[in-house]
């Protein structure tokens, strides 16, 4: 795998993971827009890269970045709602 492939895999999977996280947080018409952009990004990535390993890595890393985004958002919301310990 070349550096360019790895960089593109990372950027595309981060973008898709964040868009999927935004999809699960936002309300209706905006979540549809986020999911549509994520689908377009996935189709573009799959057309550009035909190697099976890069496609599998894209799906796995997209899921991991989605879970990381949701976890970070949950921690942020928890600390925003918890009373200050003074």
Radius of gyration from the CA trace? 16 Å
The strand count comes to 0
Described by the principal axes of the CA atoms, the overall outline is flat
The DSSP helix count reads 3
Q: Structural class, please?
A: mainly alpha
Low-confidence residue ranges: none
Can you summarize the main beta sheet?
none
Proportion in β-strands: under 5%
Protein name: Polyferredoxin
Keywords: Membrane, Transmembrane, Transmembrane helix
Transmembrane segments: 7-24, 30-46, 58-79
Structural overview:
It is a single chain. The protein is mainly α. 84% of the residues lie in helices and 0% in strands. The protein has three helices and no strands. It has helices spanning 3-25, 30-48, 52-81. α1 packs antiparallel against α2 and α1 packs across α3 (52-81). The longest helix has 30 residues, at 52-81. The termini are far apart. The mean pLDDT is 93.
Key attributes of the depicted protein:
single chain; about 90 residues; mainly alpha; 3 helices; membrane; transmembrane helix
Nutshell version of this structure?
This protein is mostly helical.
Topology:
Layout (H helix, E strand, L loop, with lengths): L2 H23 L4 H19 L3 H30 L5
Helix pairs in contact: 1-2, 1-3
Protein name: Polyferredoxin
Organism: Paenibacillus favisporus
Keywords: Membrane, Transmembrane, Transmembrane helix
